[in-house]
Amino acid sequence: MSQLNLRKAVMIGCGFVGSASAFALMQSGLFSELVLIDANPDKAEGEALDISHGLPFARPMDIHAGTYDDVADAAVIIITAGAAQKPGETRLDLVKKNVAIFKSIMAEIRPRNCQGILLVVANPVDILTQTAIRYSGLPENRVIGSGTVLDTARLKYLLGEHLSVDSRSVHAFIIGEHGDSEIAAWSSANVSGVPLNDFCEMRGHTHHQQAMAQIAEDVKNSAYEIIAKKSATYYGVAMAIKRICEAIIRDEKSVLPISGMLHGEFGIDGVVLSMPAIVGKNGREAYVPIRLSEKEYAALRQSAAALKAIADQEI
Q: Which residues are catalytic?
């Protein structure tokens, strides 16, 4: 059995998301070794070389192309490999193509007895995280998806802009599917402990329902807008991946809305979706019971039912 190397990460998939994430991780200083794997070995080698040439401006690190043997002792294995979302295509439209790709990746990972955390990023992330849980052989807490970490960042950003306040002081979550049935959990949203509506009024905003509906819609559609304009989204998710890796490697026990399997929490069972969870060196430690309205609970159950129907059919 390989001993876990806390300073090593593996990136499987070197497309837009994988290479942008590798670049973000190089700058983070979290790892001393980063291995890139791609179906096209030249692509992995080219990205490793290109990113390595920035090391004189950062910190010493070994960035190189590798093979699946490298996953055995890696602290975090990040999977971005998969068919990309095209303009006009939903994340769920990618299901068939990417479930097949994931099954082939899990067939490589499973026999290598990995000791680290599997972080799924490819879309549809909830379905693919469930695929990884089923076929990787790893315990459920060590298989997580990037989930709605990016959607939540988009929500905080837009609320920060709306309220003219630092987005880091905004505490709010997008929950459920990373996709069209996602839910903005307004009931628990606040700005540094001040309920959102109170803070809005303090900043001169009074049309709460209208503004909240528009912001939630903008968050949901932001990926489509970016894809329509530049064919892919990758910088935002690269920062989200870096953030999740920080929580794991530093054992921060940070609360992040990652994709994970639910077993009765929030009244949902046997399906993977995003809810706020404590994230540390062992992956997902526990879910955080945030306050939700009955309407939000109903929307969450609906989101779970939509994902479960697809998972039961495709995985």
A: 178
